[in-house]
Design goal:
Layout (H helix, E strand, L loop, with lengths): L3 H7 L6 H16 L5 H29 L19 H25 L5 H14 L13 H22 L4 H24 L1 H7 L4 H5 L1 H22 L13 H12 L8 H23 L2
Helix pairs in contact: 2-3, 2-6, 2-7, 2-12, 3-4, 3-5, 3-6, 4-5, 5-6, 6-7, 7-10, 7-12, 10-11, 10-12, 11-12
């Protein structure tokens, strides 16, 4: 019998920063153009959080039934670890997607942007087909691209647009920074599982690049907000305070660059997520105060 703690671990709380950071950044970008709205920000947060939980359960289910998680070095999975029935994990994923859908429809109608419902449907489809379906794109090295697009560009700019009715260059810079670090979280997770994924036929970006190049790409993604911060600072000098995120990011880079393997890479997920959220919060406050 699975416990509440098993289900919580299956939802992978260490990845939730990937949902919180883009909404914070997008709300700050909206405030910078005079359009922040607390109610719509809350709905956007529900959408993003439900999507990240849904995709985590969906990955657990799909990888589990394929046998991809049979030789896993990371945290135990509900399906692959035999902690829950596969159909129950699948139901949990679709329940989360349903929550995201309801909140997304409400947000789209409140913002008078009905076409955002179509974007939301695309996000849910992207979450499921990452590892689900007959030809999951996550098994073709496109997972990080999808994370960058959905939890970076779409999440940040969508949050800004549904509050302010427009997007800005500042919003785009924040979207690129958040999306890059979010993709970095996904990449380091796949670096950890290169050997087992390769054996299972899961050709992730890390598998395609190889260990050394994948680690170099992670470093580039983790350091990208430095240049973006300096650019944002032209409009708001306080944005430079966002560089404090390096305290966490550099620690993550040292672990990955130092050649850590297996379970030794697990802390990097949380470090990178917290660094991303810290950067998003500081930059959001900085641009909102312009």
């Amino acid at each position: 019998m699975s416990s509440a703690s098993n289900w919580l671990e299956g939802a992978r709380p260490h990845t939730w920063a990937n949902a919180f950071a883009p909404v914070v950044a997008g709300t700050g970008a909206a405030a910078a153009v005079g359009g922040a709205h607390a109610g719509r920000a809350l709905l956007a947060l529900i959408v993003a959080w439900a999507l990240i939980v849904g995709v985590n359960y969906a990955n657990d289910y799909s990888d589990g039934i394929r046998g991809t998680d049979d030789d896993r070095t990371g945290p135990a999975r509900l399906t692959g670890g035999g902690l829950a029935k596969p159909e129950h994990v699948k139901m949990a994923a679709f329940a989360a997607f349903a929550m995201a859908g309801v909140a997304g429809i409400a947000l789209s109608l409140w913002a008078n942007a009905w076409w955002f419902i179509l974007i939301g449907a695309l996000c849910i489809a992207g979450a499921w087909f990452y590892t689900g379906g007959k030809n999951p794109y996550g098994y073709r090295g496109l997972g990080e691209v999808a994370v960058f697009v959905f939890f970076g560009l779409v999440a940040v700019l969508g949050t800004q647009f549904t509050q302010a009715g427009r997007i800005s260059w500042t919003g785009l810079a924040l979207a690129v920074g958040v999306g890059g670090m979010s993709a970095g979280v996904n990449l380091v997770n796949n670096i950890r599982d290169i050997d087992s994924d390769k054996a299972a036929g899961k050709i992730t970006l890390a598998v395609r690049l190889g260990d050394a190049r994948a680690r170099a790409v992670f470093t580039a993604l983790a350091m990208a907000p430095v240049a973006l911060t300096l650019g944002i600072a032209f409009g708001s000098w306080a944005a430079n305070f966002g560089l404090v995120y390096l305290v966490l990011a550099l620690k993550a880079v040292r672990i990955v660059g130092g050649g850590a393997q297996g379970r030794a890479l697990i802390p990097v997920l949380g470090l990178t997520g917290r660094a991303m959220l810290l950067w998003a919060v500081i930059e959001a406050v900085a641009v909102a105060l312009v």
